[in-house]
């Protein structure tokens, strides 16, 4: 069985939609633009790196490209039995699974992006990847920051992202270095998946309360509990919790094998999640669809 996975904020890059602009799947961009009242095509074709770094732009761009690639994969006959997404990518996965339609998911992503931008502006924060340490060691480093840093993403063995106040993250990274971990600062606009996003969670909850969630055609593995969910009623609370809770990606992918997955297909611009999958569950086959030219190979692998 194939699982499809979708990256989130951080996967965006200038011009990432250019190879899809002349395909039939580009119509999805017009639908997303209509819901948001924004020129989403400009984000995918013309925006520079600085523009795309802003949360309100990065999330919309990553979500839109994911849906374009999903549409292309479906037109090419690709099928799958499970879906998952990293952080923002969870919304794309919910469309793939039939839990949300394009318009409903777009409206939620628009609210989420604006809410997180405003929260980040009001509660400045940052993030850093800690390499070479396990989750317990990173949690200990965060505890030494005095409450200003938290684990935000448990991505793969030896790759954990922390987030928090600039001072808290600086303190936690120094502690991680003392524990012989390596540190890589991340160019992001806030402390995502931490308590610093609480004000964004309140705004998102209002949007989630009216969202038309349906039972899925396939299950989606949720970030917050690393469990597979098919019941549409589960997703409002799960997406609310996701905003201020760690992304449990390592545990999510590790559970794919027990759910019957034999191959993971990443639908996104750079294949970064596939690299994590290789480290978490090397027995799984992997494929990436980033460009239209990738569709045939991914479908026949």
**Low-pLDDT residue intervals, each spanning 5 or more residues:** none
Give the tally of structural domains: 2
Profile the largest sheet: 6 strands, mixed
The helix/strand class is alpha/beta
| Beta-strand content | 15-25%
Total beta strand runs: 10
Order of helices and strands: EHHHHEHHEHEEHEHEEHHEHEH
CATH class of the largest domain: Alpha Beta
3D shape: globular
CATH H-level superfamily of the largest domain: Malonyl-Coenzyme A Acyl Carrier Protein, domain 2
Q: What level of helicity do the residues show? A: 40-55%
Widest sheet: strand order?
8-7-2-1-9-10
Q: What value does the average pLDDT take?
A: 93
Number of contiguous helices: 13
Determine the N-to-C terminus distance. 12 Å
CATH fold-level assignment of the largest domain: Malonyl-Coenzyme A Acyl Carrier Protein, domain 2
What radius of gyration results from the CA coordinates? 18 Å
CATH architecture of the largest domain: 3-Layer(aba) Sandwich
Description:
This protein has 301 residues and is an alpha/beta fold. The chain folds into two domains: 2-122 and 195-300, Malonyl-Coenzyme A Acyl Carrier Protein, domain 2 (3-Layer(aba) Sandwich); 126-186, Malonyl-CoA ACP transacylase, ACP-binding (Alpha-Beta Plaits). It has helices spanning 27-36, 40-45, 49-53, 55-75, 89-97, 102-122, 135-143, 166-178, 198-209, 235-242, 249-254, 272-280, 294-300, and strands spanning 2-6, 82-85, 126-131, 149-156, 159-164, 182-186, 219-221, 228-229, 263-267, 285-289. The strands form two sheets. Strands 8-7-2-1-9-10 form a six-stranded mixed beta sheet, with helices on both faces. It has a four-stranded antiparallel beta sheet with strand order 4-5-3-6. Helix 5 (89-97) packs antiparallel against helix 6 (102-122). The chain is globular and about 50 Å long. The model has no long low-confidence stretch (mean pLDDT 93).
């Amino acid at each position: 069985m194939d699982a499809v996975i979708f990256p989130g904020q951080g996967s965006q890059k200038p011009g990432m939609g250019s190879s899809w602009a002349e395909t039939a799947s580009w119509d999805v961009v017009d639908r997303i633009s209509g819901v948001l009242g924004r020129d989403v095509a400009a984000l995918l074709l013309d925006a520079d790196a600085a523009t795309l770094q802003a949360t309100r732009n990065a999330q919309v761009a990553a979500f839109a490209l994911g849906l374009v690639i999903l549409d292309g994969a479906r037109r090419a006959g690709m099928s799958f039995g499970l879906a998952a997404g990293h952080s923002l990518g969870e919304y794309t996965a919910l469309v793939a699974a039939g839990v949300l339609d394009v318009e409903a998911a777009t409206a939620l992503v628009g609210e989420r992006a604006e809410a997180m931008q405003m929260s980040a502006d009001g509660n400045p924060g940052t993030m850093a990847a800690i390499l070479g340490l396990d989750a317990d060691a990173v949690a200990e480093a965060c505890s030494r920051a005095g409450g200003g840093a938290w684990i935000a993403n448990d991505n793969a063995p030896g790759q954990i992202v922390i987030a928090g106040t600039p001072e808290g993250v600086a303190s936690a990274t120094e502690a991680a270095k003392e524990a012989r971990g390596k540190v890589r600062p991340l160019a992001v606009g806030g402390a995502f998946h931490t308590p610093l996003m609480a004000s964004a969670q309140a705004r998102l909850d209002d949007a989630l309360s009216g969202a038309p969630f349906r039972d899925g055609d396939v299950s989606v593995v949720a970030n917050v509990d690393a469990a597979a969910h098919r019941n549409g009623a589960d997703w409002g609370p799960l997406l609310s919790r996701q905003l201020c809770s760690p992304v449990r990606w390592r545990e999510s992918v590790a559970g794919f094998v027990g759910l019957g997955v034999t191959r993971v297909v990443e639908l996104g611009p750079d294949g970064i999640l596939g690299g994590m999958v290789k480290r978490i569950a090397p027995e799984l086959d992997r494929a990436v669809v980033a460009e239209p030219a990738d569709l045939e190979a991914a479908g026949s692998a």
